[in-house]
Structures are given as structure tokens and as C-alpha cells.
Specification:
Length: 324
């Protein structure tokens, strides 16, 4: 009896001293995961979050729930995730314009980039330089020449101060040494309405917003600002093809977790994103939503954030962009 008790005691001691590391590694995830979308339902960020949630749930074997926390240009959702437990169960569906621009646009956004650790990039959304037919230009070089000959005679639209279109057009102005007047709107809808009416003459926006108007000849598509042509506008060249290789403007959506989230969880989540982005139904749904799948692992995503943040900060400061 004493020998048996001693043997059982050693077994118990071994379990205490060696808490099953393999079991812990395999335990994640063992409950539902929340993807916080820092924007209202609808739009690129929400569409990506829902696409990821459905696909990742299949990969991880646990429910993945979308939690829309819009407001304050994304800052409400970002701050919520920054304060969440670093356990891999509350994730941020991050949009590049918020992630890169808000630290420079807001003195106290309620979060910092250092509050998050990257998981993976999922998709990008390209943009198209659309102009009103009243501008006598049919190519990008012709447009740049016209803008240089008519400084501040052209007004350009954006979805609001500090938006991707605003900062992106300011980058375009800096690279082409041109000058235009900024007219901010509350979203793409009213901006496109004024574009069609000629109140503003240039808008850099996502292709689905203006494709039908370009195809109908009501607007002109000058160049796509991504790495490849858009399938909905196959006749419109990229900026590189049109003679301006240094200018690209793409909005990306990626997943981040609170800082200090265990590497095991980050690796598991990153693998789930990668596998999700490779499934046929996700590829088809992304294409239908006007999104381009572009998976990047955590290390590559971190480099993108580092390099692009510097460019955004420089443009925001030099153009004196403030949130109104």
C-alpha cells in the first residue's frame, strides 16, 4: 500500500511540475472568437470581417462572431480591442486608413499601434482615379498636364477629412507636383452625386462605386491605383502602366490581436486566415465584393505597417490634414 501511494504521489507530482504543454497548445481555441469591426455594417471592412468570420470558423472549429463597433473614425473599435484580454479571443479587423492615419490625425485616439500585434493581411481594395468629362484628359499624363496648367481649378472629393481618398489624393498631388481643392463629404454617395453633377471633378475611390458611371460614359476612369487592373474595368490601366509607377493607393484589411497575445494563438489564427483565403468560396465572394485576396503573414504585415505609417504621417503633416 505504501509503495502504491508513493507511486501515485510521484505521478501527481509529475503532473504538477509538467503541466501538459502540448495540451495547452492544442486547447486554442476552445470557445468562440470575436472579430471586432471598427465600422458600421456595410462597406469593405465589414464585408471582410464577415467573410473571415465564416471561413475561419470552419478552419478553427469554433464560432467566430462579428462585433460592429463603429464610430470616431474607427477609434471606438480599436480602443475596445486594445483593452481586451490578450488571449486570442478578441481580434481587430483593421482597416489601413484607420491603422495608418489615426495616430497622426487624432491627438488622443485612445489606442496606439503598439497596442496590437499583427496576425495576417487578408484583402486589399484598389481604387480608380475617376474624373468628370469636363476635364479634357483621357490618360494619366494628360490629366497631370491639365492639373499643372490649371492649379486649384479642379476640386477633388473624399469621404471625409483624413479618409483614404483625402490622404491618397494629397499623396498624388505631392508626387505629381499638382494642386487641387479638397471638398470633403460624408461618404461616397453624396461625393459621387456631385461628381456626376460636375460640382467636383476628381474622385479617387473604389471601382464598384463608380464602375457603372464609367461604363455609361458619365465619368472617365483614368487609372487604377493598384498592382493590377480591376476585372470590372479591364480597359483602365494601372498607374504604373499609365506612366506613374511610384503611385499606388490600396486600402487593406488585416487581423490584429492585443499586444502580448501568445505566439501559439497568433500562429494558429494566422494559419486559419491563410487557409480561409485559399478556399474557392472565399475567393469567389471576395471577387464579387470587389476585393482582392492578398494574404501576408504577420512579419510581412508588420513591415507594411511600419513603412506605410511613415508615408501617411508625412503627408498628413505636410498637407496640414485635420479631422473636421
Amino acid at each position: 500500500m505504501r509503495r502504491r501511494s508513493f507511486s501515485l504521489g510521484l505521478t501527481a507530482l509529475a503532473l504538477v511540475l509538467c503541466p501538459a504543454a502540448p495540451v495547452l497548445a492544442q486547447a486554442f481555441p476552445n470557445k468562440s472568437i470575436t472579430l471586432v469591426v471598427p465600422a458600421p455594417p456595410g462597406g469593405v471592412v465589414d464585408a471582410t470581417g464577415r467573410l473571415l468570420a465564416e471561413a475561419m470558423a470552419r478552419q478553427l472549429g469554433q464560432p467566430v462572431v462579428v462585433d460592429n463597433r463603429g464610430g470616431a473614425s474607427g477609434n471606438i473599435g480599436y480602443a475596445h480591442v486594445a483593452r481586451a484580454p490578450a488571449d486570442g479571443y478578441t481580434l481587430l479587423t483593421s482597416y489601413s486608413a484607420f491603422h495608418l492615419g489615426n495616430p497622426s490625425l487624432f491627438p488622443k485616439p485612445g489606442w496606439a499601434q503598439s497596442d496590437f500585434v499583427p496576425i495576417a493581411m487578408a484583402v486589399v481594395a484598389t481604387n480608380v482615379i475617376a474624373i468628370h468629362p469636363s476635364i479634357p484628359a483621357n490618360t494619366l499624363p494628360e490629366l497631370i498636364a491639365y492639373l499643372k496648367s490649371n492649379p486649384d481649378k479642379v476640386s477633388y472629393a473624399s469621404q471625409g477629412s483624413g479618409s483614404l481618398a483625402h490622404v491618397g489624393t494629397e499623396i498624388f498631388k505631392a508626387q505629381t507636383a499638382t494642386s487641387m481643392v479638397h471638398v470633403p463629404y460624408r461618404g461616397s454617395g453624396p461625393a459621387i452625386a456631385d461628381m456626376l453633377g460636375g460640382q467636383v471633378q476628381l474622385f479617387i475611390t473604389t471601382p464598384p462605386s463608380v464602375m457603372q458611371h464609367i461604363q455609361a460614359g458619365k465619368l472617365k476612369g483614368i487609372a487604377v491605383t493598384g498592382k493590377s487592373r480591376h476585372p470590372g474595368l479591364p480597359q483602365v490601366p494601372t498607374t504604373a502602366e499609365a506612366g506613374l509607377p511610384g503611385f499606388e493607393l490600396e486600402g487593406w484589411v488585416a487581423l490584429f490581436a492585443p499586444a502580448s497575445t501568445p505566439a501559439e494563438a497568433i500562429n494558429r489564427l494566422g494559419a486559419a486566415v491563410k487557409a480561409s483565403m485559399e478556399t474557392a468560396d472565399v475567393v469567389a465572394k471576395a471577387k464579387a465584393a470587389g476585393l482582392e485576396i492578398r494574404y501576408l503573414p504577420a512579419s510581412a504585415l508588420q513591415e507594411v505597417v511600419r513603412s506605410e505609417t511613415a508615408g501617411w504621417a508625412k503627408t498628413i503633416k505636410s498637407a496640414n490634414i485635420v479631422v473636421q
